Amino acid sequence: MSEKINSSPEHHAEHIDTSAESKKALEQLLEKSENAHESTVAEVQVLEKNAENQAISGKEITIGEKEKTNSSTIVTKDLKMKAYQKSLKQVRQSLPVTDRTFSKLIHQKFVENISTISSVTVARSSGFLGGSFIALAGSIIFLFISKRYGFGYNYTIFFFLFAGGYFIGLFAELLLRAIKKRPVA
Question: Dihedral of the CA atoms 78, 81, 83, 88 (nearest 10)?
């Protein structure tokens, strides 16, 4: 354990081989690396020529061929429906039994179609705004008249006023859209 490592420069100089053989070996390695570089450059040029020969320019491809190549990215109605059914199935698995049954009822084709149509036509904000305003104003006026002339207030008048105001609001929205679409002369 009392050995010492001799790390003096003279000690290392003895082990370095500076003979002609090692210089020759180094020169051969240098030549091999230069030759390898030249051969890779030649291989790259050959590959570039092959790529140019096999490549087709965009001008050479017809429209029909372009559509055929992109057909894998087209989303069809059937694909959308399968994805929708899969997501419904995954969500239903985490629902309780009663909610799962209700989800099956709600997401039937017939019920969804009615819901979609009614959301576009029935649930119009302009109709609800018009109905609410007419029902409020009409109820206040009718209450005032009924108190003034001494007859009873009929609560069903509110619903009739709301329905009338709803249709007035829809008509006003249609009228405004027609005015906006008309070209200015």
Answer: -160
